[in-house]
Amino acid sequence: MAGDVPVVNPWLPQSRPSGGSNGKPQRTVQGGQARVPTGLTGPAAPQGAGVPRPERGLPVARARPGEEHAWWWLGVHGGAGVTTLRRAVPGGRDAGRAWPVSAQSQPVVLVARSSAYGIKAAQNAAQQWASGMVTGIDLLGLVVVADAPGRRPKILQNLVRLVSGAVPRLWEIPWVEPWRLGEPPTSHLPKECAPLARDLTRLTRPA
Predict the structure, then answer these.
(1) How many distinct helices (H) and strands (E) make up the chain?
(2) Nearest Cα to Cα of residue 28 among 196, 191, 179, 147
(3) What is the pLDDT of residues 75-86, one digit of tens each?
């Protein structure tokens, strides 16, 4: 098992794995049929011992039986963008800012804004998962939603890169001005939503 998981220290800046657990690149094919999801940026499973536990973590809630969904969107803070993503990329359900647990492993996607507060909240959630504080979670990755238009400050970009090494995958959604103005998300989909939708569909498809 240990050989299947990239060995990284997600809490220190360093180079990141560029491919999947077998060492081969995993990339979504643009403009055609994607054969594999976006490649791993960090560990595919909790690391347990050695990962620092956050002082404050997200609560745990029992997933209601009978709910039809492919994955859970877990906003790591208020205003992360879960409602918009749920409409822009159908198939998931809002976890209500709590880890959904049940008798079966639950696929979860973390969602955070690209502000310092949002990224640090994502880091805390990643620590909570990686340290084994929550169980029965199949963490698919993290979606970072732009919190402002324009180029992201370097300090925030470095934070995103750091936290991306603590989660299996990273997806980024740019600023969409019509979303801010209340326009329907499906009417103004950035191109980044397409690979996100393809990845999540393939990652949650029954074997």
Answers:
(1) 5, 7
(2) 196
(3) 999 999 999 999
